[in-house]
Amino acid sequence: ELSTSLIAAKKGHSDMVFGNIIGSNVFNILMIMGVAAMLKPISSSMFAEQLVNFDVWVTLAVSVIFAAILFARKSIGRYVGMTMFAGYILYNIYIYAIYVTP
Question: Where are the domains of the chain?
Answer without folding.
Answer: 1-42, 44-102
